[in-house]
Amino acid sequence: MISRRIWVGWGLAVLVAVGAGCRTGPRFDPRARVKPVEGLTAVALTNQLNPEWLRPPTALYTLGPGDVIGIEIMGESASRSTAIVGPDGRIYFHLLPGMDVWGLTLAQTKAKLETGLKQYLRDQPQVVVTLQGVGSRHVWLLGRLAKPGVYPLITPLTVLEAIATAGGALTVPGTTEDLADLRHSFIIRHGQPLVVDLERLLHDGDMSQNIYLQPDDFLYLKSAESRDVYVLGAVGRGGPVPYRRDLSLLAAMATAGGTIQDA
Asked: Is pTM beyond 0.85 here?
């Protein structure tokens, strides 16, 4: 009996001490400014979306291997022909030897052709150069798209325009449920993933994520078919439940047969 009273007394003493400490100790004021901690330095965030990606590219198109151009000397319809930029960046036209046009704009290519043809023609030639096919610039659009594939990048192309070009993201037939896991889909540029939230772009209409693609960009919409959440324990049918974007805790539990007695 005595020992029990001693333990009860010690317990009351501890409770009083804790209560006193709570009353007399420092209190948290959520409105107070946080003081910087000494020895720590500010670190800039590196995973922010570059605002330059949202601006359409303004640089003129430059030729590369695989591009097809039309060439014609004005006033000579028989001179009309097409030329493919070879793997070495050269084209062949008329009497000219192989001419390197890799990295040149159409205007620069026109001027170079006119200079080269001048030594073979009596009058100063006027050349017309047109771009007829793009083979040097592509974007990869793969995954859960209606028409996945490699597409030429002819004009400035945003993410939304690219997905539309590939037929749009696939959905479950007869529903609006995505077959693509947009939260885990991604864009790769120069071997590095870009900080672009495709779920915010496609579902929420957040145009701040609608960047312009660059040559050799890789856009991949990951499959959502294998996504599951697991409901285990005191439920009717424990196991995996197919995940969907609007899946709530109650809906997941109901899919698993609901709770059982003593859950």
From this structure: no
Same domain, yes or no: 217 and 143: yes
Residue 250 inside a domain? The answer is yes
Q: Report phi then psi at 202, rounded to 5.
A: -85, -30
**193-212, pLDDT tens digit by residue?**
999 999 999 989 999 999 99
**Is the Cβ–Cβ distance between 166 and 146 less than 8 Å?**
yes
Kindly give, in sequence order, each residue whose CB lies less than 8 Å from that of residue 257, ignoring residues fewer than 6 positions away. 235, 236, 237
Q: What angle do CA 85, 71, 136 make, to 5 degrees?
A: 25
125 and 117 in contact (C-beta within 8 Å)? Answer: yes
Q: Taken in order 248, 253, 259, 263, is the CA torsion positive or negative? A: negative
Q: Is 107 helix (H, G, I), strand (E, B) or coil?
A: helix
Give the dihedral sign, CA 61/64/67/69: positive
Count of domains forming the chain: 3
Task: Kindly state whether residue 194 falls inside one of the protein's structural domains.
Answer: yes
Give CA–CA dist 29/156, Å, rounded: 52
- Do residues 194 and 254 both lie within one domain? no
Gap between the Cα atoms of 234 and 194, Å rounded: 42
For residue 19, is it within any domain? no
Residues 232 and 191 in one domain: no
Of the ranges 28-32, 34-38, 230-234, the best mean pLDDT one: 230-234
Degrees (nearest 5) of the Cα angle 44, 46, 50?
A: 115
Tell me if 98 is assigned to some domain: yes
From first CA to last CA, the distance across the chain in angstroms is 40
Q: What is the CATH number of the domain that holds 97?
A: 3.30.1950.10
Q: Is 117 helix (H, G, I), strand (E, B) or coil?
A: helix
Domain enclosing residue 104, as ranges = 68-133
